[in-house]
Design a protein that fits this description.
Blueprint (H helix, E strand, L loop, with lengths): L7 E3 L2 E2 L3 H8 L13 E2 L16 H26 L1 H5 L1 H20 L4 E3 L4 E3 L2 H10 L1 H8 L4 H9 L6 H7 L7 H11 L6 H29 L21 H67 L4 H16 L5 H5 L4 H18 L8 H10 L1 E5 L4 E3 L7 E7 L2 E7 L2 E8 L4 E2 L1 H6 L6 E4 L3 E7 H10 L1 H16 L3 H6 L1 H11 L4 H17 L18 E5 L15 E4 L4 H12 L6 E2 L17 E4 L1
Parallel strand pairs: 14-17
Antiparallel strand pairs: 1-5, 2-3, 4-5, 6-13, 7-12, 8-11, 8-13, 9-10, 9-12, 14-15, 16-17
Helix pairs in contact: 2-4, 2-8, 2-10, 10-11, 11-12, 14-15, 15-17, 17-21, 18-21
Length: 617
């Protein structure tokens, strides 16, 4: 706590109850910032002698009294400028009394402490208070708005003299209106008063002052216009200047109110017309823009694609494919399934998909003979796409993520050997593409390219495996259909998949139906039964002789473009020696070390899993 004789006294607070805080907080000025949960208490402040606290109740009442005098000054100063007779009457003496009270307030201001926002202390030093008031613009305006110029003229000249000069000087009293603004700002923050009614009262006061000012101003113009008969009031009252002050003031206020309300009505009607025109123009603009917005979006997207292709110096063929895809995307936007179906319930989406694609999927060789429940689940998970002509749907050696069923159009299946493209087959409606890579979980062996505009439906590898895993009976049918399809492949396609020849040969040597059923179960289990691609070695039926692996005759770090890049699919023997012998037979060379794809050496065949890739070096 600061001593009594110090130049600054910090704000001291004490804790109060919530009811006391509510009653006392309204007396705190908006410029003071007490801590949360505390209120200002006059009894706890230690100010210098003859220093007034800015939030002292008596000083607040004094400020409120001055606000009433400010309202009178604002009304009288404009009235006295307009009507010369009013400046010579009783209002002149009332003005002197009002100026006297404001002169007292100027003196009191030299004794009112102020709140220093830089260090949050209440400054009560007389010199600092006086220096702050003198160096501010406030003192000059307070003095010039309080000087009684008619009284000074009486003292110097000996007579009361009022005129336009003194009337204009009286307008300096309008400076005092800032006190009214401060009062309303304090009332708006006072929780004891309704904010709505406070704002409404402020609006009414501003409106009344505007009506009073406008009426007096236009009467002042009419009184000084020559000839006066051509003015708004002179046409109705020819001798309006000889009438009394209150008669002229009443006419002015009436004219101001009528004119103001007419302008308000005109403004409201004008705003209504503007809104109506904006609504009409907006709808017309919307109709025009809606027809071309898709065109603008397509052109912007194509320009972005072409800039990307130019920046990265992509080849011309790739640019044409990108451009064709973007054009097809916008041309078939209304046919895309995803945008239409995404907001519909799953049951409705399934019904629509079955209605559109059930017959096509049912004709596909892979799903012939499967149950209707499985087919219904499969169709519901499929997604439709369009591809432009000469667009590569599947690239050779890419990771198998989806397989496709052709709904309409035509595609070519090709392969590349030493940089030369070789045609293999043509696919049409209800044919499949990409299923070999998905089922064997190997890089896609062929490139699939559209010949014309084609619609396909696709399903992801992961979803397909989950469905087959839950339906083991349908899985066996799918494996049987797939094996029949492999047997009917053309010679050119079998040459691209050398391990298929050995796989089909192994299938033919199985002597009994029991072995065939076992192998079908193993094929299905290894391909679909485990989503992670690993074998369930805890099953005793999966011995070393029933686990299939793919063997290669080169080091895993070595890249090869020869025909053995796909490796050989074999059943894992019971010993490492048998594995070396089998590898020598399949690959044409004998190795001494077995490596995994990551370079780790295999020492125990029991650690191997279904579809592992082994490198014999």
């Amino acid at each position: 706590m600061a001593e009594k004789g110090s130049s600054t006294a910090p704000l001291l607070f004490r804790r109060r109850s919530s009811s006391e805080m509510k009653n006392k907080s309204a007396s705190v000025s908006s410029s003071l910032l007490p801590a949360f949960g505390t209120v200002v208490d006059d009894g706890d402040l230690h100010l210098k002698r003859n220093v007034i606290a800015p939030y002292d109740r008596r000083y607040r009442w004094w400020q409120t009294f001055l606000v009433g005098l400010v309202i009178y000054s604002a009304w009288a100063s404009i009235l006295e400028l307009t009507f010369d007779k009013a400046a010579n009457g009783v209002l002149l003496f009332i003005d002197l009394v009002v100026d006297f009270f404001f002169a007292i307030d100027i003196i009191l201001t030299f004794f009112v402490a102020y709140f220093d926002t830089s260090n949050f202390v209440l400054v009560d030093d007389h010199l600092k208070i006086a220096f702050r008031y003198v160096t501010r613009f406030w003192l000059f305006m307070d003095v010039v708005s309080t000087i009684p110029f008619p009284l000074i003229n009486k003292i110097l000249i000996g007579e009361w003299h009022t005129g336009q000069v003194f009337g204009l000087l009286n307008l300096l009293r309008l400076w005092r209106l800032h006190r009214v603004g401060e009062l309303f700002r304090r009332l708006e923050k006072d929780i004891r008063f309704s904010y709505f009614w406070t704002r409404l009262l402020k609006l009414i006061c501003v409106t009344l002052f505007a009506v009073h000012s406008a009426g007096c101003f236009y009467y002042w113009l009419a009184a000084r216009h020559k000839p006066s008969e051509h003015t708004w009031i002179g046409r109705l009252i020819g001798d309006f200047k000889q009438k009394g002050v209150w008669h002229g003031y009443t006419c002015s206020i009436y004219w101001s109110i009528v004119t103001l309300t007419s302008k308000i009505f005109n403004s409201i009607y004008m705003l209504f017309n503007m809104g109506l025109i904006a609504y009409i123009i907006g709808n017309i603009t919307n109709l025009v823009v809606q027809s071309v917005v898709k065109t603008f979006a397509m052109r912007d997207s194509i320009n972005e694609v072409m800039r990307y292709a130019s920046k990265n110096q992509l080849p011309e063929g790739m640019r044409e494919q990108m451009l064709a895809h973007m054009q097809l995307k916008f041309n078939t936007a209304e046919l895309q399934q995803e945008k239409v179906l995404k907001d519909l319930p799953k049951a409705i989406r399934s019904s629509i998909a079955q209605h559109l694609f059930w017959k096509t999927v049912e004709k596909t060789y892979l799903f012939q003979g499967v149950s209707d429940d499985f087919l219904s689940q499969l169709v519901s998970e499929m997604k439709a796409e369009y591809f432009p002509p000469r667009f590569e749907i599947i690239l050779q050696n890419e990771i198998p993520t989806d397989f496709y069923i052709l709904v309409s159009g035509a595609v070519d299946m090709v392969t590349y050997k030493n940089g030369t493209e070789q045609f293999l087959s043509n696919l049409e409606s209800a044919d499949m593409a990409g299923e070999i890579g998905v089922i064997f979980n190997i890089p896609q062996p062929f490139t699939v390219r559209t010949k014309r505009l084609s619609q396909v439906i696709r399903i992801s590898h992961h979803q397909f495996k989950q469905m087959v895993q839950s339906e083991s009976g349908d899985g066996k049918i799918i494996i049987a259909n797939f094996m029949e399809y492999l047997k009917g492949l053309e010679k050119d396609m079998l040459q691209e998949l050398p391990f298929l020849t050995e796989l089909l040969a192994d299938q033919n040597v199985q002597p009994t139906a029991q072995n065939e059923e076992k192998q079908n179960r193993e094929t299905m289990d290894s391909t679909y039964g485990n989503p992670t691609g690993t074998s369930n070695t805890s099953d005793p039926s999966l011995s070393a002789g029933t686990i299939r692996v793919i063997i290669y005759g080169y080091h895993p770090s070595k890249k090869t473009m020869s025909g053995d890049r796909f490796g050989k699919l074999i059943y894992l023997p019971n010993s490492i020696a048998d594995l070396f012998n089998l590898a020598e037979k399949k690959l044409g060379k004998r190795g001494s070390t077995i490596l995994m794809a990551d370079g780790s050496e295999v020492e125990d065949l029991s650690s191997l899993r279904e579809n592992d890739h082994l490198f014999i070096v």
